[in-house]
Amino acid sequence: MSSRSDPAGSGEPARLESSPGGLPLGKLRVDRRPEGTSKSYSCFGYPLSIFFIVINEFCERFSYYGMKALLILYFTRFFKWDDNLSTAIYHTFVALCYLTPILGALIADSWLGKFSTIVSLSIVYTIGQAVTAVSSIHDLSDFDHDGTPNNLPLHVALCMIGLGLIALGTGGIKPCVSAFGGDQFEEGQEKQRNRFFSIFYLAINAGSLLSTIITPILRVQECGIHSKQACYPLAFGVPAALMAVALIVFIAGSSMYTKYQPQGNIMGEVAKCIGFAIKNRFRHRSKEFPKREHWLDWAQEKYDERLISQIKMVTKVMFLYIPLPMFWALFDQQGSRWTLQATTMNGKIGLLDIQPDQMQTVNAILIVVMVPIVDAVVPLKKMTVGMFLASMSFVVAAFVQLEIDKTLPVFPEGNQVQIKVLNIGSNNMTIHFPGETVHVGQISATNEFRTFDLDKLTSINISSPGSPVTPVTPDFQQGHRHTLLVWGPNDYRVIKDGLNKKPEKGQNGIRFVNAFGESLNVTVDGILYEDITSYNASKYQFFSYGTKNITLSSLEIPGDCSNSFKSFDFGFGSAYTYVITKSGRCPKLDAFEDIPPNTVNMALQIPQYFLMTCGEVVFSVTGLEFSYSQAPSNMKSVLQAGWLLTVAVGNIIVLIVAGAGQIKEQWAEYVLFASLLLVVCIIFAIMARLYTYINPAEIEAQFDQDEKKKKPETVYAEIDSASQTLQTKM
Q1: DSSP string, 199-227
Q2: What is the average pLDDT across 202-223?
Q3: Which of 66, 126, 574, 679 has the CB geometry, 3.0–4.6 Å to 239, for a possible disulfide?
Q4: CB 612 within 8 A of CB 393
């Protein structure tokens, strides 16, 4: 069992790839003839060559999962794509990773062989990782050195090229690596081979677990030549380096490997047989031709009965695969929608500060714990149990989302504007909005932003006790938040806030209002707010969680007054305005909340990860065991291809839903996916109940007996024919 949904090969889970009971994808052995001779080295009874393969697998899985963990936040934060587009591109990439294994199997089995295929596509893979890392260097096109790329399409193009190469590389080697490892063992080493697959599985889990912990930590570091930004180049660069290491290690063991010549691909024969049956049935579609028991029987004119019988077994199982993509549609959203959900939550869990993209490690950790527990408690003969648990995980995600939505601020849309009043003067002020009057005391603010339709915001008036009413000249921009600064009966200023959403990356926005003197500078943890003029506000700058050191600089601050302050402990995703006033002769800071911090803790995601992990264990293991038990020995590769295809289709379902983008509320989308999987679960339960189990080994044994019976008859017939021919000649 792997920490991911890669049911085959050295790609996502080690489900199928680690099963010594069947042939890996595209592996058809007719004659095991080595491509060349190699010296036989052994260590503790194992071929020394497998250690190179295991190290290669660890590095490759670290590379893949480390890169994949960053993708969704890279799209939303670096490219500034919205959640729907980011999700669609993410799942397109994952789908490609599950479509390309078929191509890799064809190349390995029909042309290059497994070793050359792994080397060739690993080079493509390494280049793809390097190109993706280069795409994240903001200095590449940041010509004005302001920290923002001037040619964003260049970065997008490089990233898409890189991801395309990665999909080809990781998918192409997926069916080859574990199978190549199995090739290193000789007859009589079945015990060692089985243990190898366990070690191979451990390498997958170790690589994926470590990478999803480490690369998000690298991402939050700051780096850059001209301006410091989130260090995506380092976070992507380390996986690229690990992929290069994986390639070098694999090539280093070349002289020790046992290599076999490509033997042809059973998938090609299956496709040809099915194609011929369909064409032949179409040619004989008129009523004058008698019906045959099964549509594949129309291939009897060209293909032998054994092959047709084997394909019948496979298509019977493939029919049950039809509902399965819906499970993967939910499962793979752990790396997209669930990660985006985590960005709106509080990442402080006890003494740990968790990054949103690190929450995926919960699946990797839980799977190691849950495999033995679920195996003992849950009936593994029920794939429907896995589907139901996955469905319930999205129900839990919907409830978590509802809790998050309660804490999210409402921002203006369309023709709306939002206004908050901040009184920075020494008088009590009254603000008259259309249909509403607001009283604001000294150095205080309204509790929340008020929303108005710009067309109906006809007048705003300011007054204070004993003073005339002052009209506010409209200076509001639709779709934006504004702060109305007031400090006297006739004194005001309208400030456009510039924040129309929660601060990204869980950071906190801080700005300052100068009600102290003529002009001053403020430094917060080394970041300078320069020349904040009297009764004016700075722009927001953004900081991570925790307390901050604030230093004021002005000639008007007396020497005996302190100019250094300590902020309160910031959380995640908040925004505050600090008003600088006088307390006697010395400066004083008052903080006002503009956007509340994230209050829903990321720990609330653990139950949904727990349910999804249990569902993964039950679904994947049961599906693997069922598929292999119902397939003939030489057709297991075809079923692996079919299984991988269900994962690809599942991701395509997600990108269609995300691409449509018609569901505005995220909780409603979670409920939609949960409902769809629940319906599919019921359909699959009915299909499974109607399924009749077979024993492929018994069927194949019967064919073997029939062939043995036919052989003597064939010999006697040939002798009799030869005798008749001889008599004729005589």
Answers
A1: HHHHHHHHHHHHHHHHHHHHHTSEE-SSS
A2: 86
A3: 66
A4: yes
Partners of residue 622 on adjacent β-strands: none
Tokens of 540: 């927001």
Residue 528's CB: how many other CB atoms inside 10 A? 12
In angstroms, the CA 135 to CA 236 distance is 10
Topology of 324-407+600-701 in CATH?
Growth Hormone; Chain: A; (1.20.1250)
Cβ-proximal residues to 561 (8 Å cutoff; 6+ apart), any chain: 585, 586, 587
According to the CATH classification, is domain 410-498 in 1.20.140.10?
A: no
* Helix residue spans in 576-695 (DSSP H): 606-629, 636-660, 666-690
Tell me how far apart the alpha carbons of residues 510 and 494 are, in angstroms, rounded to a whole number: 18
**Residue 521 in contact with residue 531, Cβ under 8 Å?**
yes
**8 Å CB contact between 104 and 176:** yes
Q: Which CATH number fits domain 502-597: 2.60.40, 2.30.30, 2.30.29, 3.30.70?
A: 2.60.40
Q: Which two tokens stand for residue 534?
A: 């009297």
Residue ranges of domains in the chain: 42-264, 266-285+292-303, 324-407+600-701, 410-498, 502-597
Fold classification of 42-264 (topology level): Growth Hormone; Chain: A; (1.20.1250)
Tell whether pTM > 0.85. no
Tokens of residue 49, six digits: 């060559």
CA-CA distance, 83 to 79, in Å (whole number)? 11
Q: For 259-282, what is the mean pLDDT?
A: 81
Q: Is the dihedral of CA 652, 658, 659, 660 positive or negative?
A: positive
Q: Which region holds residue 488: left if phi is over 0, alpha if psi is between -120 and 50, else beta? A: beta
Q: Are the C-beta atoms of residues 40 and 185 closer than 8 Å to each other?
A: no
Give the SS3 label for residue 452. strand
Helices 666-690 and 636-660 cross at an angle (nearest 10°) of 150
Task: Provide the 8-state DSSP code for 597.
Answer: P
Helices (H), 27-150: 49-73, 83-107, 114-135
Decide if 410-498 and 502-597 have a common fold: yes
Closest alpha carbon to 549 in 529, 573, 527: 527
Q: Where are the beta strands (DSSP E) in 265-410?
A: 348-349, 352-353
Residue 603 makes CB contacts below 8 A (sequence gap 6+) with 349
Q: For residue 474, which amino acid is it?
A: P
Of 76, 102, 78, which Cα lies nearest the Cα of 89?
76
Q: What dihedral angle (degrees, nearest 10) is formed by the CA atoms of 237, 239, 245, 250?
A: -140
Q: Which two tokens stand for residue 431?
A: 């603000």
* Total number of residues shown for the chain: 730
**Alpha-carbon distances, residue 728 vs 53, 595, 715 (angstroms):** 65, 105, 20
Q: Which residues contact 190 (CB under 8 A, 6 or more apart)?
A: 20
DSSP 8-state class, residue 546: B
- Tell me how far apart the alpha carbons of residues 679 and 536 are, in angstroms, rounded to a whole number: 58
What rounded mean pLDDT belongs to the chain?
A: 83
Work out the pLDDT band at 6, boundaries 50, 70, 90. Answer: very low
Average pLDDT over residues 263-271: 76
